[in-house]
């Protein structure tokens, strides 16, 4: 199998962290240079038609794109340690938490950076700076809500580390490009959670 990745982008990093948490080895990592527009080359589009990373090429030639789909496949193939729920009840609540992070935390962060950071201009044309700044304002409200959640429970989805924590950590780390740090905004619980995740081997991989 081959994982087409770009380590500096948040979504590929989510899969890389997932692999380490699972202890999965033997998958070839193929780095795709986004700045060089390699993701838009015809050869890569044949694997990922929307020119997105990550993409997991299976041994039978099929290709999975979309981070959540890739992690779901890996969870089924390598069920331990469990990161996505042991039964339908837990899976539903973990997925809810993960979707909230993806849509309402990572989404605004990504849109802000893509539309305001000059380094992302080659990848996002046209950029709309006003839209990006509006997304930054939304981030404050969502981060405040997650801070409240983490005042009541140790992890994003509840009492144990899950895929939702991976998504949230990659989002918060990506937010460094917009100079966002939870502690600077008074979000002590969110910062403490981030620091705990940062100590995990998967965060340093």
Commentary on this structure:
It is a single chain. By secondary structure, the chain is of the alpha+beta class. It folds into 2 domains: 2-77, Glutaredoxin (3-Layer(aba) Sandwich), CATH 3.40.30; 88-204, Glutathione S-transferase Yfyf (Class Pi), Chain A, domain 2. The protein is built from 8 helices and 4 strands, in the order βαβαββαααααα. The chain has a 4-stranded mixed β-sheet, covered by helices on one side. Helix 1 packs antiparallel against helix 6. The radius of gyration is 17 Å and the shape is globular. The relative contact order is 0.13.
In short:
The protein has 205 residues and is an alpha+beta fold. It is built from 8 helices and 4 strands.
Strand and helix map with partners:
Layout: E1 2-5, H1 10-22, E2 28-31, H2 42-45, E3 55-57, E4 63-65, H3 67-77, H4 88-116, H5 129-152, H6 163-174, H7 188-198, H8 201-204
Parallel strand pairs: 1-2
Antiparallel strand pairs: 1-3, 3-4
